[in-house]
């Protein structure tokens, strides 16, 4: 048992805010994935992201065996796919604690480009967790990337991979929930060790903010 009973009874639900990034080359479907996740809609119309688009969605994670419920406000930053703007990346990436790296299963060069995106992410944000979204899985007849190539890239990036389709919704919710679980895990451990009340509720600049609900 971690922490006194009265402390555990008080902190049963936490509200947490987290920022994540969607990264990848142009036209891999980042914006469509966010749209499917946030409002459950899809459009075939392609509009290039200029700069970054920010969306948010409230997610619930329950840990009944720990006596804990986390309400995660996820801020999703859909970052433009064009390369060569390091100053902008430093601004857009600041404070992000996880990322979904997206590539197009019908375009091998978008998979190869993830190495650069991964390096940029680590150089600015550190060793944050991530998921590899193998997008446009609905175009199975046009897929030109092998499972072996995907596995090798996922291994080099130290990320799990998921086949996704913004058009059909395949694994879109699963990908974002996987990221959410990775983000919640450290908070669960801090809760169990009784460390949360030793922190300021507003947190540090660029970090997660949380507060106990009574």
Features:
globular; 27% strand; 7 helices; Rossmann fold; disordered N terminus
Q: Write down the Rg.
A: 18 Å
Termini gap:
21 Å
Average pLDDT number: 83
Overall morphology: globular
Give a quick summary of the entry:
The protein is α/β, with parallel strands linked by helices. Helix content is 35%, strand content 27%.
Structural account:
β2 and β3 (68-79) form a beta hairpin. Strands 1, 2, 3, 4, 5, 6 and 7 form a 7-stranded mixed sheet that branches. The longest helix is centred in the last third of the chain and has 22 residues, at 172-193. The chain is of the alpha/beta class and 214 residues long. The chain is built from 7 helices and 7 strands. The protein has a single domain (5-213), classed as 3-Layer(aba) Sandwich (Rossmann fold).
Fold blueprint:
Blueprint lengths: L4 H6 L2 E11 L6 H10 L12 E12 L4 E12 L6 H8 L4 E7 L3 H5 L1 H12 L4 E6 L11 H11 L2 E4 L8 H22 L15 E5 L1
Parallel strand pairs: 1-3, 1-4, 4-5, 5-6
Antiparallel strand pairs: 1-7, 2-3
């Amino acid at each position: 048992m971690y922490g006194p009973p009265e402390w555990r009874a008080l902190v049963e639900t936490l509200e947490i805010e987290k920022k994540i990034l969607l990264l990848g080359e142009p036209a891999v479907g980042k914006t469509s994935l966010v749209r499917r996740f946030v409002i459950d809609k899809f459009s075939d119309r392609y509009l290039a992201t200029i700069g970054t688009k920010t969306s948010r969605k409230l997610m619930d994670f329950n840990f009944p065996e720990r006596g804990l419920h986390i309400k995660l406000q996820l801020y999703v930053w859909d970052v433009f796919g064009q390369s060569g703007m390091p100053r902008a990346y430093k601004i857009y990436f600041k404070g992000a604690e996880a990322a979904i790296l997206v590539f197009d299963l019908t375009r091998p060069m978008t998979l190869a480009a993830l190495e650069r995106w991964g390096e940029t992410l680590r150089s600015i944000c550190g060793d944050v967790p991530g998921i590899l979204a193998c997008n446009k899985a609905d175009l199975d007849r046009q897929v030109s990337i092998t499972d072996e190539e995907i596995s090798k890239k996922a291994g080099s990036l130290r990320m799990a991979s998921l086949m996704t389709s913004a058009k059909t919704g395949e694994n879109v919710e699963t990908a974002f929930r996987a990221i959410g679980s990775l983000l919640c895990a450290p908070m669960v451990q801090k809760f169990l060790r009784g460390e949360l009340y030793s922190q300021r509720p507003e947190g540090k600049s660029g970090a997660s903010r949380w507060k106990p609900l009574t």
